[in-house]
Amino acid sequence: MMHFARNDTSILGNWWWTVDRWLLGAVVLLGALGLLLTTTASPPVAERINVDSFHFVKKQAFMLAPALFTIIGVSLLNLKQIRRLALVVFVGALVLMVAAILFGTEIKGATRWISLGGLTIQPSEFAKPAFAVLAGWILAARRMGEDVPGYAISAALCVLVVGLLALQPDIGQAFVVCSIWFTQLFIAGLSMSFVIFAVLGGLAALVAAYYIFPHVATRIDRFLDPQAHDSYQIDKAMEAFQSGGIMGRGPGEGIVKQSLPDGHADFIFAVAGEEFGLFACMFIVAIFVFVVVRGLSRLLQDNDMFVVLAATGLIVQFALQALVNMASTLSLIPTKGMTLPFISYGGSSLLALALGMGMLLALTRRRPEIASWRD
């Protein structure tokens, strides 16, 4: 366990006494729970594809070390370095998103992944936290009186990312990006007329997505009328929750998980419900709520507009991703293939979330004095 004296002026010593250790601890706890749930949820999936029973467990454990290194390494950076990192990651992610659309492997009708050096990467996962920081930077410059067309530039970046996501297609991620941008605009000082226009525009976009993208229409129709459409996945997920009850069947004792598609990934929350029960699920939800509330509470004490906007965008991304995953698993909204942060299996998602959480920890670190957003 790390321990540093309060008068330790080293890089790590200064980091230890300025970073939000409670927030860091909650994220580490989520990662540990993710490995535990992957261990119990993934063997049936591995057996169905004829690989070693602990194939996914080993890969997830292997990715946890670089994820933790990323969180700590990025959280050591100052505000200027965070902006530079976000710019580099954003440009790189956009290039890889284009490459994925043109040359990527199609999986379940979508081209969201690209293979690099034997690793399969989903570039859009990295675009989200980078966009949150860049949009916050640009809007903060506009808000602080700089001669920068912040609204126009941030809107152009949002349209660019959303356009590439629509081509993959990945409407769920596009919704998250739009939500990040809209929240930041709202905090930066939107007029009420623009708020109404944005809400109406979002509803119009949802209707358009229903008619343009068949998979969106299928998921919405299945949600509205489960009896008339194939709802095998969500039926199995609900059966898993019912099987687990309040206390769960016990680790490794799940029965429904044997036939639950993507039980190690998109539907891992259902496996948690079956094997560990209602209380365990409530505990997981409580951790996510703690991370969100803790992050927002740190911002209440910060007057730096860039920090407030960028960190809020990162929190919105984290919260929405968790909310969409759990709500779709519980059949509260149409199903959407979105991972549960730090818990679902997935290397790209884990590293991208680690990047975003490292940025959030860097932005919310205690600073001796309020720094200018330019520093």
Automatic annotation (TrEMBL):
<dbReference type="GO" id="GO:0008955">
    <property type="term" value="F:peptidoglycan glycosyltransferase activity"/>
</dbReference>
<keyword id="KW-0472">Membrane</keyword>
<dbReference type="InterPro" id="IPR013437">
    <property type="entry name" value="FtsW"/>
</dbReference>
<feature type="transmembrane region" description="Helical">
    <location>
        <begin position="180"/>
        <end position="213"/>
    </location>
</feature>
<dbReference type="GO" id="GO:0032153">
    <property type="term" value="C:cell division site"/>
</dbReference>
<feature type="transmembrane region" description="Helical">
    <location>
        <begin position="343"/>
        <end position="364"/>
    </location>
</feature>
<dbReference type="GO" id="GO:0051301">
    <property type="term" value="P:cell division"/>
</dbReference>
<keyword id="KW-0133">Cell shape</keyword>
<feature type="transmembrane region" description="Helical">
    <location>
        <begin position="305"/>
        <end position="323"/>
    </location>
</feature>
<dbReference type="Pfam" id="PF01098">
    <property type="entry name" value="FTSW_RODA_SPOVE"/>
</dbReference>
<keyword id="KW-0961">Cell wall biogenesis/degradation</keyword>
<dbReference type="GO" id="GO:0015648">
    <property type="term" value="F:lipid-linked peptidoglycan transporter activity"/>
</dbReference>
<keyword id="KW-0131">Cell cycle</keyword>
<keyword id="KW-0812">Transmembrane</keyword>
<feature type="transmembrane region" description="Helical">
    <location>
        <begin position="85"/>
        <end position="105"/>
    </location>
</feature>
<comment type="similarity">
    <text>Belongs to the SEDS family. FtsW subfamily.</text>
</comment>
<keyword id="KW-0808">Transferase</keyword>
<feature type="transmembrane region" description="Helical">
    <location>
        <begin position="150"/>
        <end position="168"/>
    </location>
</feature>
<feature type="transmembrane region" description="Helical">
    <location>
        <begin position="22"/>
        <end position="41"/>
    </location>
</feature>
<comment type="pathway">
    <text>Cell wall biogenesis; peptidoglycan biosynthesis.</text>
</comment>
<keyword id="KW-1003">Cell membrane</keyword>
<feature type="transmembrane region" description="Helical">
    <location>
        <begin position="61"/>
        <end position="79"/>
    </location>
</feature>
<feature type="transmembrane region" description="Helical">
    <location>
        <begin position="276"/>
        <end position="293"/>
    </location>
</feature>
<dbReference type="GO" id="GO:0008360">
    <property type="term" value="P:regulation of cell shape"/>
</dbReference>
<keyword id="KW-0573">Peptidoglycan synthesis</keyword>
<dbReference type="GO" id="GO:0071555">
    <property type="term" value="P:cell wall organization"/>
</dbReference>
<keyword id="KW-1133">Transmembrane helix</keyword>
<keyword id="KW-0328">Glycosyltransferase</keyword>
<dbReference type="GO" id="GO:0009252">
    <property type="term" value="P:peptidoglycan biosynthetic process"/>
</dbReference>
<keyword id="KW-0132">Cell division</keyword>
<dbReference type="GO" id="GO:0005886">
    <property type="term" value="C:plasma membrane"/>
</dbReference>
<feature type="transmembrane region" description="Helical">
    <location>
        <begin position="126"/>
        <end position="144"/>
    </location>
</feature>
<protein>
    <recommendedName>
        <fullName>Probable peptidoglycan glycosyltransferase FtsW</fullName>
        <ecNumber>2.4.99.28</ecNumber>
    </recommendedName>
</protein>
<dbReference type="InterPro" id="IPR001182">
    <property type="entry name" value="FtsW/RodA"/>
</dbReference>
